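note to self — DONT lose this again. spent like an hour looking for the file last time. sequence + predicted structure for the chain T wanted, 375 res
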Amino acid sequence: MNPKWPVQRLGDLCELVGGGTPAKDRSDFYGGGIPWATVRDMNVDLLTSTEHSLTEAGLQSSSSHIVPAGSVVIATRVGLGKVVILAQDTAINQDLRGLVIRDPGIVTDRFIYLWYRSIASQVIAAGTGATVQGVTLPFVSSLEVPVPPLAEQQRIVAKLDEVMVLGDLLQDRAMLERVRSEELRQRMTVELMESSGPLISLGGLCEVLDSKRRPITKKNRVPGPIPYYGATGVVDYVRDFLFDEDLVLLGEDGAKWGPGDKSAFAISGRTWVNNHAHVLRPDREVVRDQWLIEYLNAADLEEYVTGLTVPKLNQAQMRSIPVPVPTLVVQDEVLARLNSVFELSGRLGEISAARRTKAGELRQTVLAAAFRGDL
């Protein structure tokens, strides 16, 4: 921190507006009243829209929780370290805190926003407790903010905005590379498999063992070493088991079935499966377990899913899913080619993740330098 700059407490610079809890006054649609923001809406720098709006009645009961446009909002419980600038007047929930500048002649919203980003790791460290995550109002209020003259603030903000844009571009490019890599992997999987052999229904390829699965309510589970599986993987560990073999599970409800979604997976040894996943024993004289899993995960199974409020891949629909099935020799050859693609895709993913990390580190380094007076 530049010793020539005066330091002030955040609570002296900003009014700290607390969040609240809307009840029946919330409308589950866009438009209408004031937007209602939660921590899940804080994934962009400028909060321009939220999932819910408050009705006029909600405004009257929640007026103390409305933060004006242009103000900074921070997360003080879940999502610690997140910070946004509001694009419009917004009501916030109890996990958030609005920072409303008391005197714009002393400090600007954008300066406070960028300063807070520079200390995000400090806030996260302070709020990571053994049982409850969060920071208190006195802690937030006591944070010390370096306050250079307004002209210097504007210069710092202009420089940092350039760096933030560059960092965002680098991260966006890395993310796009990863998405394209995953899309290529999914498309190649489907194309290679579907061109390799005739179609056979999934029910004709597997013995369906759904009648043997059994759910256990959480309060009735006896802890143990046996993995307890649900729609997408292990959800707990229990003492007893239902199955003791290699099997394939396919999500029945609580999963996703779009192209590239991981709705199918292998289990092995002693296991327990609840009623949210279909249990399949492949005919291994006809089809490899990995072949089934890779195809079911790469293909678009949405057309077989029923239910509007609770999507479900029921057993009849699941049995009807057509699967390309060449000879075992061809399956092995195609799987070997796909494994090479998967290995390359994994390496590209690691490179993209490293680039995103580097971009984030660049931003934090420059932010720290700026508020030391070194920019």
